[in-house]
Structures are given as C-alpha cells and as structure tokens.
Amino acid sequence: MKNNMGSSDKIIRFILAAIFVALYFTGTVTGTWGIVLLALACLFVLTSLISFCPLYAPFWLSSCKTSVE
After folding, report:
1. Mean pLDDT across the stretch 18-42?
2. How many Å apart are CA 19 and CA 28, to the nearest integer?
3. Torsion of CA 6, 56, 12, 44, to 10 degrees
4. Of the given ranges (8-22, 25-39, 50-64), which has the lowest mean pLDDT?
5. What average pLDDT does the structure give for the chain?
6. What is the pLDDT of residue 4?
7. Where on the phi/psi map is residue 68: left (φ > 0), alpha (ψ -120 to 50), or beta?
8. Which value, in Å, is the radius of gyration of the alpha carbons in the chain?
C-alpha cells in the first residue's frame, strides 16, 4: 500500500475521531448513531495511523505532497 494521506488529512481525521468519541461518551449521541460514530472514529484513527485511505485508491486521489524532481 502506497501512502495516500497527507499530514493535514491525518490531523483532521484525528480531530473528528476525538469529537465522535466525546459525543458518544458524554451521552450526546446514543443508540445506533452512537455506534456508527464510534465505528467511524475507529476507522479514521486506523487510516490515519497507516496513512492509507482505501476510498482514495480507486479514484487515484492523494493528499500527500508530491515532490518535484
């Protein structure tokens, strides 16, 4: 897997994951939507840690900076 996520993309995903977890554990979002938010938070953290988003791959998208040689 080639990295396709830049640092700004990873930071945004970590922040969203933290917000989703906070919403769930404060009881603001409960039930099915709460579980969905927790699943998304886990997905965002995982993709940020490995710097690869599987949804970017089929569309040849990348938020990594490219070096000009």
Report:
1. 96
2. 11
3. -120
4. 50-64
5. 89
6. 85
7. beta
8. 14
List the structure tokens of 60.
Answer: 């040849």
Q: What is the pLDDT of residue 41?
A: 97
Alpha carbons within 13 A on the beta-carbon side of 6? 8
Distances (CA, A) of 48 to 8, 14, 32, 69: 10, 7, 24, 27
Distances (CA, A) of 69 to 11, 66: 27, 9
Q: What is the pLDDT of residue 9?
A: 92
Integer angstrom CA distances of residue 16 from 2, 60, 66, 67: 23, 24, 25, 28
Q: Tokens representing 64?
A: 């990594």
User: Would you state the structure tokens that stand for residue 53, as one six-digit string?
Assistant: 């988003």
